[in-house]
Amino acid sequence: MSLRFAPAASDAVALHVIPQEDAAAWIKTLPEATAAWAQASGFTGAIGQTLSLPATAEWPALAAAGYGNAATRKRGRFALAAAAVKLPKGTYRIAGGISDDQLEIEALGWLLASYRFDRYKTIAPMEAYLVAPDGVDVARIEAIANGEALTRTLINTPASDMGPPDLEQAARDLAAQHDARIEVTVGDDLLAANLPMIHAVGRAADRAPRLIDMRWGDTGPTLTLVGKGVCFDTGGLNLKPGASMGLMKKDMGGAAAVLGLAHMIMATGARIQLRVLIPAVENSVAGNAFRPQDILTSRKGLTVEINNTDAEGRLVLADALTLADEGKPDQIISMATLTGAARVAVGPDLAPYFSDNPQFVAALEASAENVADPVWRLPFHDPYEAMIEPAIADLDNAPSGGFAGCITAALFLRRFVTGSNYAHFDIYGWQPVAAPARAKGGVGQGTRALLDALDRILTK
């Protein structure tokens, strides 16, 4: 689906966005009968409240949306979206009440609130449409909204319709939309291309593993995005219990995130030479599945002892990261639904990330605050390096003990890149409970912050 602002219309209803502390005073400005109606309706300006007022001889038709107070807005994001979904069918224009620095965020939230995943079920659309507020960058907001919609749809689609070939097709469609170049290496050709760990993880599945390689742009600094594309994760021979397998259609959330971010970059015409690498596999159970205690040799030449076949994401990312690093880009970013430990540490709402680059960290943290896309830095803690070094191979894919699982996974990935131009995001990719502008289901994390920060990151 395409998320767009409504065309400007002379009959668009004025929507007054009313902070809670201003509600009583605002009501007093209305004609007497209208004010009585507003009071009788119990409108207090709380987040999510709406009020529709018919036209009178003194006033045209208008509507109001509660905007809460500073404390309640701090506890969430996209406060206006909470009201947008409750407004009657119509076209609206914002008539004050939102500060200039929040206007683009709230306009974006309105578009995101209209997202529907309706591939398998008819879902009523949101019929409250917004005219773009004056002064906002309409094309950029729509690009961000549609990049986020792409990410959500890819994650929401079950593995029956989103296996490695389907993920490849989604990348091809995106490449065609933006005139990008794309190459895909499939099945046993991965061995010939020296991508052995991607092949090892995916070889047991009926749908062949593959590496998707998309490029766009010919000028500017170079950026390579690497996204984990495990389209379904059974855990392999270390089979997950049923409760842990239930959401594994979202294990390609890193791939979905980088494709959504790639759309944002290309649609906004960023002066960046972009490369997107996605190892797309299914971690399945069959006679040829890779086994616990196997030793795999990576593209980089490092050997990896397999102590848990359910720690497969870092294996496919390792080969892709090595390939990325060989191109010597100015910045490498990996995104993956990699560890449960990250969710235990920060919950589903924050996107934990790792970076050793102070300039990257400063730019990302500022952008995350500016665009309401929260992130949280975790450390590449060097003393834990010994935990990923087993007795008989260079690396261990699943250190015993259970301590610092997201950190040891990040340290594992860092072994396959050189320099400090690498950042890793261990995202959840799922909204467990519906919130303003975020339906329950797949969700992007960290991508809007990255888009906002990229100019500063790549021109440091």
Please describe the topology of this protein:
Blueprint: E1 13-18, H1 23-28, H2 32-40, E2 50-53, E3 62-66, H3 70-74, H4 79-84, E4 90-94, H5 100-113, E5 128-130, H6 138-156, H7 164-178, E6 181-186, H8 189-192, H9 196-202, E7 210-216, E8 222-227, E9 229-233, H10 242-245, H11 253-267, E10 273-283, E11 295-297, E12 303-305, H12 313-326, E13 331-336, H13 340-346, E14 351-355, H14 358-370, E15 375-377, E16 395-396, H15 405-414, E17 422-426, E18 430-431, E19 441-442, H16 447-458
Parallel strand pairs: 1-3, 1-4, 4-5, 8-10, 8-13, 9-10, 12-16, 13-17, 14-15
Antiparallel strand pairs: 2-3, 6-7, 7-10, 11-12, 14-17, 18-19
Helix pairs in contact: 5-6, 6-11, 7-11, 9-12, 11-16, 12-15, 14-16
Task: Describe the model.
This is Leucyl aminopeptidase. It holds the Pfam family Peptidase_M17_N_1. InterPro entries: Leucine_aapep/pepB, Macro_dom-like, Peptidase_M17_C, Peptidase_M17_N_1. Belongs to the peptidase M17 family. The chain has 16 helices and 19 strands. It is of the alpha/beta class and 460 residues long. The chain folds into 2 domains: 13-114, Leucine Aminopeptidase, subunit E, domain 1, CATH 3.40.220.10; 141-458, Zn peptidases (Aminopeptidase, 3-Layer(aba) Sandwich). The mean pLDDT is 96. The chain has helices at 23-28, 32-40, 70-74, 79-84, 100-113, 138-156, 164-178, 189-192, 196-202, 242-245, 253-267, 313-326, 340-346, 358-370, 405-414, 447-458, and strands at 13-18, 50-53, 62-66, 90-94, 128-130, 181-186, 210-216, 222-227, 229-233, 273-283, 295-297, 303-305, 331-336, 351-355, 375-377, 395-396, 422-426, 430-431, 441-442. A hairpin with a 5-residue loop joins strand 11 (295-297) and strand 12. The relative contact order is 0.12.
